[in-house]
Design a protein that fits this description.
Layout: E1 2-4, H1 10-20, E2 25-30, H2 35-38, E3 48-53, E4 59-67, H3 77-88, E5 92-103, H4 114-124, E6 130-133, H5 136-139, H6 143-156, E7 159-162, E8 165-167
Length: about 170
């Protein structure tokens, strides 16, 4: 029996396998690290003979989305995240803890942005390989913040993917 991805739920996968009378998985293939593809993995981890994955070969990505209250022409953060997740499919793996959004916070003032601070800390710790945003202006509009982000990405080798346009801060 071969299984491609494990779905979004361990209990759901377990119930499905039980209903079909499947007690052993000969081959498990995990296509990419999105929770709707891998969250059920604990249901089969002790009954799988062999597992292969493209996950180890894929770069990890993070998403940062931001919109100020007055920015009526820019997609809301939920829409930005949805767009970027769709663009990442098959290219990058994105862990849920690497999706940040500052909804309703201006990037042109030095307002406190909790998600920005978390993202910057993750950059410094090199927790991912690619930073995704729908526009560079969604990251920040402050030159000092932009320079800090560029500098930190340059130090650890993180590249940017801005709607399919790749930017390497090291170059």
């Amino acid at each position: 029996m071969a299984l491609l991805d494990t779905g979004p739920s361990e209990p759901l996968l377990k119930a499905c396998l039980d209903e079909l009378g499947i007690t052993r998985i000969n081959l498990l293939v995990l296509s990419h690290y999105d929770l709707d593809h891998v969250a059920g993995t604990p249901a089969v981890d002790r009954t799988t003979d062999r597992a292969i994955s493209t996950i180890a070969n894929m770069k990890t990505a993070a998403i940062y989305a931001r919109i100020s209250r007055t920015d009526l022409k820019v997609d809301k953060t939920a829409r930005q995240i949805e767009i970027l997740k769709r663009e990442a499919k098959g290219k990058y793996t994105i862990k849920p803890q690497h999706i940040w959004d500052d909804d309703g916070i201006s990037g042109s003032t030095f307002a406190e942005r909790a998600a920005w601070d978390k993202m910057l800390a993750a950059v410094k710790n090199h927790e991912f390989d690619v930073l995704m945003a729908t526009e560079t202006s969604r990251l920040t509009r402050q030159p000092a913040e932009m320079e800090e982000l560029l500098s930190e990405c340059r130090k650890v080798g993180i590249i940017w993917d801005i709607r399919g346009r790749i930017f390497d801060p090291q170059k």
